[in-house]
Amino acid sequence: MTLFILFLIIGLVIGLLTRGDLLKLGELKFKQPGLLILALLIRLPLQFSPEFSQAVGGAVGGLLQVIAFSAAIAFAIANRDQRGMFLIALGALFNILPIATNGGYMPGDRAMYAQLLIADGQLERAEWVDSADILLHTRRITPETHFWFLSDVIPVPRLIFTRPYMISPGDVCMALGIMVLVIATMHRRPTLRLSLEDIKA
Fold first, then answer.
1. What pLDDT shows up at residue 197?
2. Can you say whether the dihedral through the CA atoms of 155, 49, 159, 115 is positive or negative?
3. Is residue 20 predicted with pLDDT exceeding 70?
């Protein structure tokens, strides 16, 4: 989720640097916003609440994640006229595939994650991560892992407002979609609307 916020900010900066209109973001209207709300209501607890992730592990947690990403796909399709929605739908699909085919867990590169934590000085956490097969709603990549290349295999070091973590190609794809949506909206041209009286005139 922090990745999405980061790319949202990048989109805002690029939009402003390229003389986009920030006020146009206030004119952005979405169809079927309930689908987006559903996706967020599921993903936020899974992302930020270890207790919730542990309580709904395995098949239940996997089902919730599939529902959340499916809602994101449906939302993107409903708003396909907006720039960036194709990337958001594609990224959500990329995340569904490894989760649905690996017992409801998102596989991840534990060795890479451990090295990331060691570089950040979190030695105890790195040892714990490297020794655990299942960690909240993720599990270690093995030779039997399906769609391992779509799993959490991309390391993200500590940034100003985030801790080190791993992300998937699907996450990157969705984040790019959000960035494109922001930039495109800031550069959207006004729509010409003619009334019946204007046409007769």
1. 52
2. negative
3. yes
Kindly report the backbone phi and psi dihedral angles of residue 20, in degrees, each rounded to the nearest multiple of 5, phi listed first: -80, 165
Angle at 53 between CA 117 and CA 160, to 5 degrees: 40
Number of helices and strands (H, E) in the chain? 9, 5
pLDDT at 188: 87
> Which residues, 6 or more positions from 39, have their beta carbon under 8 angstroms from its beta carbon?
68, 69, 71, 72, 75
Contact 129, 113 (CB under 8 A): yes
Query: 3-class SS at 174?
Result: helix
| pLDDT tens track for 30-82 | 999 999 999 999 988 887 777 777 777 677 888 999 999 999 999 999 999 99
Rounded Cα gap, residues 146 and 154, in angstroms: 17
Q: How far apart are CA 166 and CA 152, in angstroms?
A: 5
User: What is the Cα–Cα distance from 96 to 65, expressed in whole angstroms?
Assistant: 8
The CA distances from residue 83 to 87, 151, 188, 192, in Å, are: 9, 26, 10, 19
Region 108-130: mean pLDDT is: 90
Contact 60, 104 (CB under 8 A): yes
How far apart are alpha carbons 84 and 93 in whole angstroms? 15
Phi-psi region of 40 (alpha: psi -120 to 50; beta: other; left: phi over 0): alpha
CB 27 within 8 A of CB 184: no
